[in-house]
């Protein structure tokens, strides 16, 4: 392996607390000159907020090292000449879509696309139902999923993520989503390109056996599972076989030559 992609939540930090040894491992990657980037399905905060959070942990990262679904979604809609998307993400993340002139927050018709991210406590029946009405108003409106992560681990326990709400809308609207985050192979491909390496030279390190490990392996990368974040012992033997399992990201330096 010559390059590393790192998930954030559950791998580098949990909530506002760093995973012990994770910042030191990222410093090690920098010292060793190992190309690395952060591949996250986080849609609860914009890219600049992710950079600021890492800086608060003592980790320096440039915007080009942070790959988020919001950035990919904007690029996808730009390529397809889509404007006026209805964006279901927190207000701060919605700013990433400003160039596309998002639809007003109370509109139920006229969306160029319906974009689903992680609204957290902002999800209500009325909000989800508005997304459905927008989709049902025109069968040509694409449903854009900012990743298909099922849940994540916050400081107070597991929380539903965007994938659960995307599946509900796919079922209700009889429409398949366009996925622009993990586990979509195109998202992984863009991350590999950012490292200027081949897929078989890159390892993805994550805590989600399906989104991180299975998704990376299907895109031609190695997948390394960590026993932090939302890892569960049932992940071992679930049918997806990681290329390696680490107790945490802190173990990477001593295991690097084995990968």
UniProtKB/TrEMBL annotation:
One cellular component term from this protein's GO annotations in UniProt: cytoplasm
Cofactor: Mg(2+)
Domain of life, per lineage: Bacteria
UniProt entry keywords in alphabetical sequence: Hydrolase, Magnesium, Metal-binding
Alphabetized InterPro entries for the sequence: HAD-like_sf, HAD-SF_hydro_IIA, HAD_sf, LHPP/HDHD2
Single GO molecular function: phosphatase activity
A Pfam family of this chain: Hydrolase_6
Family per similarity comment: Belongs to the HAD-like hydrolase superfamily.
Alphabetical list of PANTHER family matching this protein: 4-NITROPHENYLPHOSPHATASE-RELATED (PTHR19288), HALOACID DEHALOGENASE-LIKE HYDROLASE DOMAIN-CONTAINING PROTEIN 2 (PTHR19288:SF46)
Name assigned to this protein: Haloacid dehalogenase-like hydrolase domain-containing protein 2
Organism expressing this protein natively: Humibacillus xanthopallidus
Lineage, top ranks: Bacteria, Bacillati, Actinomycetota, Actinomycetes, Micrococcales
């Amino acid at each position: 392996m010559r390059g590393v992609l790192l998930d954030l939540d559950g791998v580098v930090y949990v909530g506002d607390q760093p995973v012990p040894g994770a910042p030191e491992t990222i410093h090690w990657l920098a010292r060793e000159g190992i190309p690395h980037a952060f591949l996250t399905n986080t849609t609860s905060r914009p890219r600049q907020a992710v950079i600021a959070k890492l800086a608060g942990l003592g980790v320096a990262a440039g915007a080009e090292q942070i790959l988020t679904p919001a950035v990919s979604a904007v690029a996808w809609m730009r390529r397809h000449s889509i404007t006026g998307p209805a964006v279901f993400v927190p207000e701060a993340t919605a700013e990433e879509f400003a160039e596309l002139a998002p639809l007003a927050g109370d509109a139920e018709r006229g969306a160029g696309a319906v974009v689903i991210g992680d609204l957290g406590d902002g999800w209500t029946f009325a909000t989800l139902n508005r997304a459905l009405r927008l989709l049902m108003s025109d069968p040509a409106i694409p449903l854009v999923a900012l990743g298909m992560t099922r849940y994540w681990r916050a400081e107070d326990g597991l929380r539903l993520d965007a994938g659960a709400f995307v599946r509900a809308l796919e079922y209700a609207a009889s429409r398949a989503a366009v996925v622009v985050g993990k586990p979509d192979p195109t998202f992984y491909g863009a991350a590999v390109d950012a490292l200027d390496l081949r897929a078989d030279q890159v390892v993805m390190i994550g805590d989600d056996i399906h989104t991180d490990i299975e998704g990376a392996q299907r895109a031609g990368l190695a997948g390394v599972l960590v026993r932090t974040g939302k890892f569960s012992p049932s992940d071992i033997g679930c049918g997806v076989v990681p290329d390696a399992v680490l107790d945490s990201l802190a173990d990477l330096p001593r295991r690097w030559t084995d990968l």
